[in-house]
Amino acid sequence: MKRKRVSKTQDASGVHVWLVLMKTFQALMPHAAESIGRTKLGDSDFRVLEALLHKGPLPVNTVGAKVWLTPGSISVAVDRLVKKGLVSRKDHPRDRRVRQVELTAKGRALITHGFRQHAAAMEMAVSVLSENERLTLLRLLKKLGKHAAPTRR
Questions:
Q1: Sheet with strand 99-103: strands edge to edge
Q2: Is the pTM of this model over 0.70?
Q3: CATH topology (fold) of 42-145
Q4: Residue 32 to residues 110, 136, 137: CA-CA distances in angstroms?
Q5: How far apart are CA 110 and CA 107, in angstroms?
Q6: How do residues 96-106 score in pLDDT, each as one tens digit?
């Protein structure tokens, strides 16, 4: 297989890939923060509600892992969302040892509207890329992420 030549001005080193990813992430963050901020929710609360919107009721520890929160942080976040009337804790229907978190009607209404606005903001932020470019980017980022992820033993 023939490799495409990289000009001397292009840097394809690992550190340059990391730097470009970081700069891109930093450039996208204000767009995400602004759209999330319009919901009057913090980032972690938004992530919890979004996970419940798309995955349905989940055990507390499962929600935490999905939204990258520690066990202590997810407990605090769920407590906060319960107090706001956005989620409720319920017994798992088949396992009494498990407590599930689910959206209330108020929480569902808030995150449905908020996520719609967030999706539109993110769409605008990536609108410079064609569908094929997005699919290629996603495929490559997933490949890189899987390779770079620490192996679980």
A1: 58-59, 99-103, 87-91
A2: yes
A3: Arc Repressor Mutant, subunit A (1.10.10)
A4: 17, 22, 19
A5: 5
A6: 788 899 999 99
